[in-house]
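Write out the 3D structure for:
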Amino acid sequence: MEKKVTWLELFYDLLFVAAVSKAGHVLLHAKHGVMHGSVRPCLLIVMGKTS
């Protein structure tokens, strides 16, 4: 039996794709040494590194 996908599930999928896209954008800029504001400390915390 097939289960239909709800609009809420599609919305969460869209949010997940947007979050992954934004994270990729931030990491791309981090790779090139361009980080703005509090992005660098947050990125370092997420990656588990300290300055």
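Residues 34 and 50 are 18 Å apart (CA to CA).
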